[in-house]
Amino acid sequence: MTEEIIIAGFGGQGVLSMGKILCYSGVMQDMEVSWMPSYGPEMRGGTANVTVILSDKRISSPILNSYDSAIILNQQSMDKFESKIKPGGILLYDGNGITRHPERNDIQIYRADAAAESAKMESARTFNMIMLGAFLKIKPVVKFENVIKGLKKSLPERYHHLIALNEKALIRGAEIIQPVEVA
Fold first, then answer.
1. Which residue, 1, 57, 74, 140, shows the most beta carbons closer than 10 Å to its own?
2. CA-based angle 101:113:182, to the nearest 5?
């Protein structure tokens, strides 16, 4: 099993953290992992993406031109990466700020309105965990318990009091995900 994933959005949305947590989770399952971030100098507000590869075999290169799955968090990322998903692949997106919805009919498309849900939870910081929970519902590439361990590993200890809230966000993401039909 090899899963090649792109996670893309704005800096500050937790794009890189989401990828790091996936990789830590994969390591705990004795998988080979690759985490390759890409972001502009602006930090918050600039574009950010991360390529994550999880595999039970050695990974020859972290550089990819197409992906099995894409987690898209803004319109710029939709424009850039929708065409790079392999036929039969998965596109998961947050509808907030999306003006042109996905148009392909050779991939599986899902929507999770994580921005709205994190506002309901009164914690904007849970946005990325809601998206990760939604992704893992449709593509369980790592075990839930390992994601929690990955959170503990990637969050500084001073933020460990937020792990329970992030766990709720993961569960909520799995609950709100919806398939999208392209006409």
1. 74
2. 30
What pTM was estimated for this model as a whole?
0.93
Where do the domains of the chain lie?
2-180
d(CA 87, CA 83): 9
Is the separation of the CB atoms in 126 and 165 below 8 Å? yes
Q: Does domain 2-180 have CATH number 3.40.50.300?
A: no
To the nearest 10°, report the CA torsion of 37, 131, 24, 48.
10
What are the beta bridge partners of residue 53? Answer: 4, 34
What three-state secondary structure class fits 146? helix
pLDDT in tens, 48-87: 999 999 999 999 998 999 999 999 999 999 999 999 999 9
**Ramachandran category for residue 97: left, alpha or beta (phi over 0 → left; psi -120 to 50 → alpha):** left
Alpha helices (H) along the chain: 15-28, 75-81, 114-120, 127-138, 144-154, 163-176
pLDDT of residue 155: 83
For residue 8 the two structure tokens come to 């893309």
Burial of 27 (0-12, 13-18, 19+ CB in 10 A): middle
Gap between the Cα atoms of 170 and 163, Å rounded: 10
